[in-house]
Amino acid sequence: MLKIFEEIKKLIPVENIENTLESPPDPSFGDVASTVCFSLARQLKKPPARIAEEIVQRTKPPKNSVIERIEAKGGYVNFFFNRARLAQFVIREAVKKAYGKPKPGGKKMIVEHTSVNPNKALHVGHIRNSCLGDSIVRTLKFAGNRVQEVSYIDDSGSQLADLLVGFRFLNIPMTTSMKFDQYCGNEVYVRVNKVYGTKPELQQRRGEIIKEIERGGNETSKLAAAIVEKVLRAQLETLSRMGIGFDLLVTETAVLRSKMWEEAFQKLRKTGAVYKETDGRNAGCWLLKLSDRPEFADLENADKILSRSDGTVLYTGKDIAYAMWKHGLLEDKFSYKLFGSGGKTWITSAGGKPKKGFGGADKSVAIVDVRQSYAQDVVAAALEMTAGRKIDYNHYDYGVVALSRNTAEQLGVVEQAETYHMSGRKGLFVNVDDVLAVLEKKAYEETKKRNADSEESWLRETSRKIARSALRYEMIKVDRENVITFDTEESLRLDGNTAPYLQYAYARSVKILEKAGRIPKLTAPATVTDTESEIIKNLMNFPATAQKAATGLAPQEICRYAFNLCALFNRFYQDSPVLQAEGKTRAFRLNLVKSFVAVLGKCFALAGIDALDRM
User: SS3 sequence, 91-159?
Assistant: First the structure.
């Protein structure tokens, strides 16, 4: 809290003292503790405990300060707040629209996420990527940054070529009553990969198709573009159900046909970052020189092939050119057109027009699972060698998603294991649409039990919001490196660390305010209970939590904060009557509930959870 930091700075005029503040593990040690004495000890050549005692001896809070007293203990300077004054100040601040937001002036950023190949529907493993990326975008924007939300579309790769093999050489029909992305991934892609085992000549056909797509201007590339568009629209429909969208879709064919790789290659040659191999099996290939870089020192044959002897550019080369565009190391030669009916999403297109504003970021974040760590390290190294300086290019990796056995049974895809792991090539996956359907059905049944007389349209809409919030929350609430075992029943519980638990606390607090009608003016309460004091301190910590989530690219911090806040509120709801209270106590508690609603609503917006007035 800015005002409290200012008061502490006046009492202890040390630069950046707010960075030394923390919450003590024991409330008897104060509401906030400073570790400043430990950093001053070496400078002053005194023990931290003695410095703390000297600070406390000469420091006295001013009259009517939020800080009531200061104590020294074990080298810490502990601050004790006046509960009533702190409550008044925090509640007034918490209900403001700009609460928690820093002053404008953030960075220009690109966050790339999802980037699913346009040959299949999104499965439940992909959606963790999407939810993490979208929540990171939300926290970065809240922190004042200008963020471009981007997805990369591999519309010239082997998986798309597999579809064309099926449609052209196996005579699989292109028309279907199924959602088109599901049809391509569930039926065509799986069938083609099974046939390769008995008809290896089709793999040669696939190679020919890839080259035709890359060249462009032929019937194969036109058919591929039509398939990609249909699949993309179906994928975006699923993401829209999850409350996720993009500013820009970058296609790989646009990277190729805009000659970005050629320009990127020349920059790499100019800096000596690449060389042409003259001997051995890689003769004629161009390689990125990595063997003399410390981060690749332990790798045998560390240098990375970027293009083959026939001039074919490998994925890594394309990724490097794309990353250079992200950071403004290449001129933006893309053309753009609007994609979709909403008029918000752009796509790179040969038939489009130049549009300034995309690319050229100060910082980029690529949400790519941990299996791509090496490739991402190569891209980062290439950027640094090209620019001659450190580039703020960030690979954000994460653990995979499995299904619990119970959920796998519900969806009819059981393996002989406790958890179900997905594999597209083996046909082992569960589409997000199917998971949402199960969640919506369960949410509908429970919501109807609680609201039997409600309109059908409200029941359906509420169930959809509960379902997508439950799925989003499960995907982002744990640390990113952890593997998630997703369970539909657990995700919908009202008594655990779930989105419905948070939504129910929100709905309960809104109902209190609705019953109260007009909210009385906030006045100083006669007393503040321990639970009320804990809620106030949690509300006070929201700005720091939001900043931590943004700077650390850690949306799980918002989830943890919201869960702890709701747990405190539910304890308050049980122990402290609001509507039955009188006078100043009633006014204080109603205003406390109002500030809780405001801050929890901000948490929901950052995590992508729907705020429901009733459930």
Answer: HHHHCCCCCCCCCCCCCEEEEECCCCCCCCCCEHHHHHHHHHHHHHHHHHHHCCCEEEEEEEECCCCHH
pLDDT band (50, 70, 90) for residue 414: low
Going by pLDDT thresholds of 50, 70 and 90, the confidence category of residue 5 is confident
Query: Which residues, 6 or more positions from 242, have their beta carbon under 8 angstroms from its beta carbon?
Result: 127, 130, 131, 134, 432, 436, 468, 471, 472, 608
CA 16 to chain centre: 29
- At residue 419, the pLDDT reads 62
Do residues 343 and 209 both lie within one domain? yes
Residues 437 and 505 in one domain: no
220 plus 165 within the same structural domain = yes
Assigned domain for 226 exists? yes
pLDDT at 204 over 60: yes
User: Exposure string (b/e) for 302-317, b if CB count within 10 Å is 16 or more?
Assistant: bbbbbbeeeeebeebb
The verdict on residue 75 lying in a domain is yes
**Measured between alpha carbons, how far is 376 from 488 in angstroms, rounded to an integer?**
33
Residue 37 sits in a domain whose CATH number is: 3.30.1360.70
Range of the domain at 466: 401-472
Domain assignment of residue 366, yes or no: no
Rounded CA-CA distance 377/530 in Å is 49
Same domain, 119 and 208: yes
Spatial distance between the Cα atoms of 238 and 92, rounded to a whole number of angstroms: 40
CA-CA distance, 427 to 230, in Å (whole number)? Answer: 21
Rounded CA gap, 254 and 334, in Å?
Answer: 7
Domain match, 206 and 118 both: yes
Asked if 38 and 149 sit in the same domain, the reply is: no
Whole-number percent of the chain with pLDDT over 90: 80
Query: Do 542 and 436 have their domain in common?
Result: no
Write down the pLDDT at residue 355.
78
Asked whether 95 and 596 are in contact (CB, 8 A), the reply is: no
Q: What is the pLDDT of residues 498-521, one digit of tens each?
A: 999 999 999 999 999 999 999 999
Buried b (16+ CB within 10 A) or exposed e, 372-400: eeeebbbbbbbbebbeeeebebebbebee
If you average pLDDT over every residue of the chain, what do you get? 92
Is the overall model pTM greater than 0.90, yes or no?
A: yes
Q: Strand, coil or helix: what is 397?
A: coil
| pLDDT reading at 425 higher than 50 | no
CA distances from 295 to 300, 302, 378, 611 (A): 12, 10, 10, 45
3-state secondary structure at position 276: strand
End-to-end CA distance of the chain: give it in Å, rounded: 33
Phi, psi of 481 (to 5 degrees): -75, -15
How many independent structural domains does the chain possess?
4
What does the block give as tokens for 313?
């550019």
From the CB of residue 496, how many other CB atoms can be counted at a distance below 10 Å? 11
Q: Is 270 within the bounds of a domain?
A: no
Cβ pair 90, 595 in contact under 8 A: yes
Clarify whether residues 516 and 603 are in a common domain: yes
What's the CA gap between 188 and 58, in Å, rounded? 77
Name the 3-class secondary structure at 338: strand
pLDDT one-digit tens code per residue, 79-116: 999 999 999 999 999 999 999 998 878 899 999 999 99
Distance (Å, whole) CA 138 – CA 130: 12
